[in-house]
TrEMBL record:
Protein name listed in UniProt: CRISPR-associated Csd2 family protein
CDD domains per UniProt: Cas7_I-C
Length: 304
């Protein structure tokens, strides 16, 4: 079933004694706004967790039935060790035109075949029809502008990035062992945020959803992923992370009934004591203004 409504949503999540999203250009330090000290987490990192949740909960080795009867709709296009051009080849085989993969035609820049391939990719790959993809860099399957878009997540208050020295009671090679003079202890570093509460905003366009075949079953899976993605993404580096709030503003029209920013302003996490040292979600209160919502807008509290 296609979407008939626009959605805007607020995602709240926290981290305790972990690194939610290290910056590889800064030695894997937690990302931070240099001017304000607020912690950052990229939209790409959030989408990665959604992809991992979908991949885990939908068995890719079996044919999966969705709510509207279509099959194999929940594969993931951008996944670990994937070769994207090989994924694109599958589309031309799927539409019955494998001959276009040969010779000069394999990088076709337009035509009906490219549009058919684009539609095939949307139908079969959850992340393509959800977030969009550029699939024209090699074997051309066109470009998709996804109906679901996320912002960077930003912490409510400035974070502190702590650096910890760690030791390992072993070495990797005999050469390293000789350098240690019999002591195989090696040193390392890890970085953590003692505590941070982050907020991200999301947008879902019904108009774009109809172009990619993003339907009600896909939407329900997205809510499940945003609610539970941290529960299945545990690692020593990330500490404790959890979704603390998922507030969805549903419009009764495709174009929407109110500006997104005015709706987001109704969700306000605040410290209970501005002078306290923050170490837990209980140090915050989340103010939700549900009074006098714009006509045609309803608020769904999925978490929180």
């Amino acid at each position: 079933m296609t979407l008939k409504n626009r959605y805007d949503f607020v995602l709240l999540f926290d981290v305790k004694d972990g690194n939610p999203n290290g910056d590889p250009d800064a030695g894997n330090l937690p990302r931070v706004d240099a001017e304000t000290g607020l912690g950052l987490m990229t939209d790409v990192a959030l989408k990665r967790k959604v992809r991992n949740f979908v991949s885990m909960t939908r068995d890719q080795s079996e044919v999966t039935e969705s709510l509207n009867g279509d099959k194999k709709r929940f594969e993931i296009y951008v996944k670990e060790k994937a070769i994207l051009n090989n994924q694109n080849k599958r589309a031309y085989v799927g539409i019955g035109k494998p001959e276009l993969l040969e010779g000069e035609d394999k990088k076709r820049k337009g035509g009906n075949a490219v549009e058919e391939a684009r539609q095939w990719m949307c139908k079969n790959f959850y992340d393509v029809r959800t977030f969009g993809a550029v699939m024209s860099t090699g074997i051309n399957c066109g470009q998709v502008r996804g109906p679901v878009q996320l912002t960077f997540a930003r912490s409510i208050n400035p974070i502190v990035a702590l650096e910890h020295s760690i030791t390992r009671m072993a070495v990797a090679t005999e050469v390293e062992a000789e350098k240690q003079s019999g002591d195989n202890r090696t040193m390392g570093r890890k970085f953590t945020v003692p505590y941070g509460l982050y907020v991200a905003h999301g947008f879902i366009s019904a108009h774009l959803a109809n172009q990619t075949d993003f339907g009600e079953d896909d939407l329900e899976l997205l809510w499940q992923a945003l609610e539970s993605m941290f529960e299945h993404d545990r690692s020593a580096a990330r500490g404790e992370m959890a979704t603390r709030g998922l507030y969805v503003f549903k419009h009764n029209s495709e174009l929407g009934n109110a500006p997104a920013h005015s709706l987001f302003a109704r969700i306000q996490p605040k410290l209970k004591n501005e002078n306290s040292i923050v170490r837990d979600f209980s140090d915050y209160t989340v103010m939700v203004d549900e009074a006098d919502l714009p006509q045609g807008v309803t608020l769904q509290r999925i978490v929180g």
